[in-house]
Write a structure and sequence with these properties.
This protein has four helices and three strands; from the N terminus they run βααββαα. It has a three-stranded mixed sheet with strand order 1-2-3. It is of the alpha+beta class. Helices cover 58% and strands 18% of the residues. A hairpin with a 2-residue loop joins strand 2 and strand 3.
Length: 85
Amino acid sequence: MATTKVGIREFRAGLADYIAADHPIAVTRHGRTVGFFIPTKTDLTAEIAALRSAAARLDEMLALDETEIDELVEDYKEARRGESR
């Protein structure tokens, strides 16, 4: 796998492209390598599933009535008290 060398300014200007790259980037300053950027691939399927799950949970919370909200707030306060001990 070949490493591409780029200056700091070029790296900052093209960061979005370097994030999408599939090879390491050597970042240089005045011709000397000062660091490496190694982009990681993300599992978009897992991210989408997590977002859908969070959205479903939010929908459930928005459907709560006043009494249920008060119970949740009390549960949260009790949990916080337990953590501070």
